[in-house]
Specification:
Phosphorylase Kinase, domain 1, eight-stranded antiparallel sheet, Transferase(Phosphotransferase), domain 1, alpha+beta, 48% helix, 28 helices, seven-stranded antiparallel sheet
Length: 857
């Protein structure tokens, strides 16, 4: 048999003996003092191709010369040089390597890898078609080579059997990038270059040529590879276009019964007349072929798979119904369960809280007016908090515990209110708090009421140059607090008011409704106007500060954290810089992740900012934007630094994550992983709550639900986006930590245990709980489950689990759906249920819910 060597796309294959007689250079000719000609391999419209020996490197090469008339054509010379520039951008085992450009006797030539084998067109003419299993192997290698070209932005434009070589070792190599071009450089008549029989409809029409045009040519090539026949036989270009647009293909299985139906399915998808409906990438084609695992192949070859390869790997079908239905059922049952738990154990649901936030705002305004500050404020702000210290004290009281009576007397929540005679501008981000803006302007007041509208704290800056005619009597202050001054005795004051006072008085007595609870009331005034009111309870440490040992411990802890953070940041920056230089980082993914973080930052700020009606709002926006940009930049650097190592070692764990970054939100596997994460997060929250209730000896109610969500739609949206942003951030940190420990310890179980212990220890608040032993055990279990899911399913499921776990903490819904806080709770439950149902629907993929075939487990 005569070997056929690499030649141009339109060359006529010649035997070595006949070629030697007709070649421009005879055998033995030395070119440029480096290449010795062995013989002519072929000749065609794009020049001659010789086999030669590179004397410098001691290896066989192929030399491609332009024809003489083309060598005198400046356009052809430019195109020839362009071939080298394009082809050298692609380095892959399944792509013919291009070395350099030289010149001999005034004729430019290209040196490239010599492939000792036969082109696919010749092979198919000789044997008809390849066996199905061999065809799948060859198809996968063609896809890998084409994907490498597309990854560098190169479109081949002339993919056909003549340009696919198979060497004597069975390796497959894509040849001849002579018609290739960088994707964004194609225009005009250039887009029509190629071989019509292997061109996409849009290319035949002279329309835009993209990587999906190569996908169409790939489909034509694979059809011929598996069947030995061309899919379309036409006598003219117009007839060919008509056949392509009709998409009437002869069934492949009718030609050869051993062809897997999955092969025909993927080829038909490649040959869709609409580019948008074709397979997105060559890697997606390879992944859809029977038995394909391109990730395993890349790892076995010692290569780092590209993000596109990772996204194209793995299953395309969703979760089997025998798994997805229980996952959805678990979420629904847990959402029902959280309302039952809230109703049973949450103080908020057992206190007669009649006043919604806006009513508490008005009552706080009335308190300010009654205490000597009647001027109408120009601006005000209000927010809600739980009274954890009150609930902890009530739990410590002896039996019998009269919770219903106690919660009528003392509300488990408090409302903090600030007002000012000028705009409340909270530099730099617009988040008003008790100290921001600083309470320095005359007429500013800070009021804290309990949920029943009773005063807990008051502080104010007196009006300027104004004397009060009638000072507010202490009896009026006692009525505002809800106490009887006759039941209290005056004592020495203990507090140091925030604002100037010329008189400070204090009283002590017993709580009127709760036995054995001592209370204090302190009132400060300046020139007759009240500037300070403080209601004291047993848990308030009047005038006391932390000891030196605790202060020293906190300082040392802060210093250690600061040094660790600085060292970690330096390591991440250096690693990101190295990955950037080596071109290993997923730059597109990092940019998309940073943009998402930036958008999240804006929405969170919009939900938290205290809006003002002047140009100051623009200043607050730009100051806050710097914070978002910094956060986005940090996650961008972190991702560039750590993602390549993960992709190089455990790419299967980020398959759906890369699909999300690629915009494939509706992917069936993405929906499946979100559903799994939702079920895990919801179940873990319910289980942790039940375990805590079982092992905690003290009875009583706890705080529950995020009160910020109840303040309005803006706050509700911003709060949930903040939860999503936190889940994204925490999920990535957890993800990189567990896999870093896995690489360090070389054991999956040890890595999970170590990571669980590490993140439990970082939650310092756990150890301040009276039941810290139980809490530590619960947190260890929660983190262990999350890490198990992360290792087994991947990042998307972990982020979803974190989002549901934290969102369950924010639900404010019990048995009374008419309460003022219930709409926010109902909206949260609806959101979580909607996400789970949408994920379940997407996990079905192309299957029907009823009467469909099960997806593989």
């Amino acid at each position: 048999m005569t070997d056929v060597r690499p030649v141009a796309s339109d060359e006529v294959r010649l035997s070595s003996s006949s070629a030697a007689e007709e070649g421009r250079f005879v055998s033995g000719t030395l070119l440029g003092g480096r290449y010795r000609i062995i013989g002519l391999l072929g000749r065609g419209g794009m020049g001659e191709v010789y086999r030669a020996t590179d004397l410098t490197l001691g290896q066989s090469v192929a030399l491609k010369f332009l024809p003489e008339e083309a060598a005198r054509n400046q356009r052809q010379i430019e195109r020839f040089h362009g071939e080298v520039r394009v082809a050298r951008q692609v380095s892959h085992p399944n792509v013919c390597r291009v070395y350099d450009i030289g010149e001999a006797e005034g004729m430019p030539f290209l040196s490239m890898e010599y492939i000792d084998g036969e082109d696919l067109a010749s092979l198919l003419r000789r044997i008809g078609r390849l066996p199905a299993d061999k065809a799948v192997e060859v198809a996968r290698k063609i896809c890998a080579g084409l994907a490498a070209a597309h990854d560098r932005g190169v479109i081949h434009r002339d993919l056909k059997p003549q340009n696919i070589m198979m060497n004597k070792r069975g390796e497959v190599v894509i040849m001849d990038f002579g018609l290739a071009a960088i994707a964004d450089q194609l225009a005009g008549a250039e887009s029509r270059n190629g071989t019509p029989a292997y061109m996409a409809p849009e290319q035949l029409k002279g329309a835009e040529v993209t990587a999906r045009s190569d996908i169409y040519a790939l489909g034509l090539l694979l059809y011929e590879l598996f069947t030995g026949k061309k899919p379309y036989e036409a006598k003219s270009v117009q007839q060919l276009i008509q056949l392509q647009e009709s998409a009437q293909l002869t069934s492949m299985t009718s030609i050869a019964s051993d062809i897997d139906p999955a092969v025909e399915k993927v080829i038909r998808r490649c040959l869709n007349p609409d580019p948008a409906k074709r397979a997105a990438t060559a890697l997606a084609v390879a992944a859809a072929l029977p038995g394909g695992d391109p990730l395993a192949a890349a790892l076995a070859a010692g290569e780092m798979p590209s993000p596109e390869l990772v996204a194209s790997a793995g299953k395309t079908e969703g979760l089997a119904l025998r798994y997805s239905v229980p996952c959805l059922a678990a979420v629904i049952l847990c959402l029902i369960g959280v309302t039952l738990i809230r109703e049973r154990s949450t103080a908020l649901m057992h206190s007669p809280l009649e006043y919604p936030p806006e009513v508490l705002r008005q009552k706080a305004r009335e308190v300010s007016a009654s205490l000597g500050y009647p001027k109408k404020p120009a601006d005000s702000a209000l927010w809600l908090n739980h009274r954890e210290d009150l609930l902890n004290h009530l739990k410590s009281l002896p039996e019998p515990r009269k919770w219903e009576e106690w919660l009528r007397a003392e509300a488990p929540i408090r409302a903090e209110y600030r007002e000012s005679l000028s705009t409340l501008v909270a530099d730099p981000f617009g988040r008003v708090s008790k100290d921001n803006p600083p309470p320095l302007q005359p007429g500013m007041t800070h009021v804290i009421l309990d949920g029943h509208g009773r005063l807990l704290h008051f502080s104010a800056v007196p009006y300027e140059r104004e004397q009060i005619a009638q000072p507010v009597p202490a009896e009026s202050v006692f009525r505002t607090v809800g106490l009887d001054i006759g039941a209290f005795s005056e004592v020495k004051p203990r507090t140091l008011p925030q604002h100037t006072t010329d008189q400070l008085r204090a009283w002590k007595g017993q709580h009127p409704k709760i036995a054995n609870m001592e209370m204090r009331l302190e009132i400060g005034s300046w020139q007759g106007r009240i500037t300070h009111v403080e209601v004291g309870y047993p848990w308030v440490k009047w005038g006391e500060s932390k000891g030196e040992s605790e202060s020293l411990f906190m300082k040392l802890r802060g210093l250690v954290i600061l040094l660790a953070a600085a060292a970690g940041l330096l390591f991440v920056l250096l690693l990101a810089r190295r990955n950037w230089k080596l071109g290993r980082g997923d730059r597109k993914g990092a940019i998309r992740l940073a943009v998402v973080k930036l958008i999240f930052g804006f929405i969170i700020w919009a939900g938290e900012v205290h809006p003002v009606a002047d140009d100051t709002m623009l200043f607050l926006f730009f100051m806050s934007a710097s914070e978002w940009v910094m956060s986005a930049a940090m996650i961008w650097v972190l991702y560039l630094a750590l993602e390549p190592a993960l992709r190089a070692r455990w790419p299967h764990s980020i398959v759906t994550w890369n699909r999300v970054l690629a915009g494939r939100w509706l992917d069936a596997q993405v929906g499946s992983h979100i559903l799994i994460g939702a079920a895990v997060g919801a179940t873990v929250w319910i289980a942790a709550d039940l375990i805590e209730s079982w092992f905690t000896p003290r009875s009583g109610f706890a705080s529950g639900g995020w009160l910020w969500f109840t303040l309005g739609t803006r706050q509700w949206i911003g709060g949930h986006v903040n939860t999503m942003s936190g889940a994204l951030h925490s999920g990535l940190i957890l993800f990189f930590t567990i896999f870093g420990l896995r690489a360090l310890l070389r054991n999956e179980v040890l890595a999970a245990i170590s990571a669980s212990m590490l993140f439990t220890l970082l939650n310092a608040g756990i150890f301040q709980s009276p039941d810290w032993v139980v809490m530590v055990a619960i947190y260890l279990g929660v983190y262990a489950i999350l890490f198990f899911i992360l290792l087994r399913v991947g990042l998307v499921a972990s982020i979803a689990a974190m989002f549901y776990l934290n969102s369950f903490n924010g639900i404010t819904l019990g048995g009374d759906w008419k309460a003022w806080y219930a709409p926010a709770g109902l909206a949260t439950v609806t959101l979580l249920l909607g996400i789970a149902m949408f994920a379940f629907w997407r996990s079905l993929g192309s299957r029907e819910l009823l009467g469909s075939e099960e997806a593989p487990a």
